[in-house]
Amino acid sequence: MPEKKKANSGFMKPVQPDEALAAIVGSTPLPRTEVVKKLWVYIKKHNLQDPENKRNINADEKLKPVFGGKKQVNMFEMTKLVSKHLK
Question: Domains in the chain, ordered, with CATH?
C-alpha cells in the first residue's frame, strides 16, 4: 500500500512565537493552527472583535506589536501579520 501523504504538514509543524506574540499565545513552540486558535481565544475573551464588522479585530496593548502597531486589522491581514512573529 502506498504511504499516505500528510495533509498540510507545514501547518502542523511547531513554530516558535517571538516575544510579542508569546505574550498572548505562550512561549512554547506550537503548530500554526494552534497559534491562530489561541489568538482567537484571546480576541474573544477580551472582546476585541469590532461589533459592527466582526471580520475586524481591534488591537489592545498586547496585540498592537503583533499587528505592526495598527489599531485595527481584518482577520485575513491578522494571519499574515502573525506569520512575521513566528520562527
Answer: 15-83 (1.10.245.10)
| Whether residue 6 has pLDDT greater than 80 | no
CA distance 47 to 56: 12
pLDDT tens figures, 63-76: 999 999 999 999 99
d(CA 41, CA 73): 17
C-alpha distances out from residue 84 to 4, 23, 65, 71, 75, Å: 31, 15, 11, 17, 15
Q: What is the pTM of this model?
A: 0.85
The grid cell for 62 is 498586547
Q: Cell triple for residue 11?
A: 501547518
Pure H helices in 1-87: 9-12, 19-25, 32-45, 63-66, 75-83
Percent of the chain exceeding pLDDT 70 equals 89
CA–centroid distance for 70 within its chain: 15
